[in-house]
Amino acid sequence: xxxxxxxxxxxxxxxxxxxxxxxxxxxxxxxxxxxxxxxxxxxxxxxxxxxxxxxxxxxxxxxxxxxxxxxxxxxxxxxxxxxxxxxxxxxxxxxxxxxxxxxxxxxxxxxxxxxxxxxxxxxxxxxxxxxxxxxxxxxxxxxxxxxxxxxxxxxxxxxxxxxxxxxxxx
Length: 170
Prior knowledge:
two-stranded antiparallel sheet
């Protein structure tokens, strides 16, 4: 590292921890390497970007500019997204129009996935935004409930009509 661009302050008397400073945002501030320094599984840059794992996402990838990158699995007890941009409550708006089921079928038979849900190829290329995907999946579930309620009403009408016809036959 370039000593003119980096400083290390250790505070112990006031109960503070260690503070690293850098004046070069493109230079690694902290880097933890394996024993032969061949890979650096944890690196933090001066701009706050952090990379976890033996590799970084390729520069050509759509998400190469992500502030935090993890190469490998992530496990956590809880993950909370604090700023979802959309949610699926609009499905219950009285003006919301369900797509007719024959159009839904035609779409998935042609495209091999549901409308507004990315294809496997799109996911492999771009990954998924979990907040958007959760909202999309919730929309599909809520639409299913609307279809079921609609069909249940039709079934109840048919059962009532059938009952009247059976009673008229007696």
